[in-house]
Amino acid sequence: MWAVQIFQAVIGLSAGVVAAGGLFSFIVELGVVADFADRTHTGDKILFYEDCTALGGILGNLWYVFGLRIPAGMWGLAVFGLFAGIFVGCWAMALAEILNVFPVFLRRAKIVRYLTVFIISIAAGKGIGACLFFAKGW
User: Fold this and answer.
1) Overall domain count for the chain
2) Distances (CA, A) of 86 to 62, 79, 82, 91
């Protein structure tokens, strides 16, 4: 019985490492950290920024997995909301900068004629996925 639990723990840990690696490689690919270091003229501290990004991901996972509570009250909620908004805004900005990938790909694949259909399909898929996510309460 303990062998099955160890096997499941190894599989779960491996899956978590792969998922986290994918997320952080996406952050690096978008160049969010490097772009902010460039804009603030603090490129000499980029290793510190990358360490903070990784530490934030690790601590966020620990809080989520173990269901830890932080008794910070309304002020803590306001600070968290501010940082969460900054995070989402940064992702939106980074994704907006690479959105020109779709038209270039579609033009090279010679499917310019159906560009509107592809964009509407992506938006509909995202909307349906969000509705299913919130309807199920996962």
Assistant:
1) 1
2) 21, 11, 6, 9
Q: Is 93 left (phi over 0), alpha (psi -120 to 50) or beta?
A: alpha
10 Å Cβ neighbour count for 83? 11
Residue 109 within any structural domain of the chain: no
Residue % of the chain over a pLDDT of 90:
2
Query: 109: which DSSP letter?
Result: T
**Global pTM value:** 0.52
Kindly report, residue by residue over 15-32, the tens digit of the pLDDT: 877 777 777 777 777 777
Residues in the chain, total = 138
Q: Is residue 120 part of a domain?
A: no
Give the residue numbers spanning the domain of 33: 2-73
**Helix-strand-coil percent breakdown of the chain, rounded to 5?**
85, 0, 15
Instruction: Kindly state whether residue 25 falls inside one of the protein's structural domains.
Output: yes
Residue 82 is assigned to a structural domain of this protein: no
Convert 9-34 to b/e letters by CB count within 10 Å (16 or more is b).
Answer: eeeeeeeeeeeeeeeeeebeebebbe
Q: What is the rounded CA–CA span in Å between residue 127 and residue 124?
A: 5
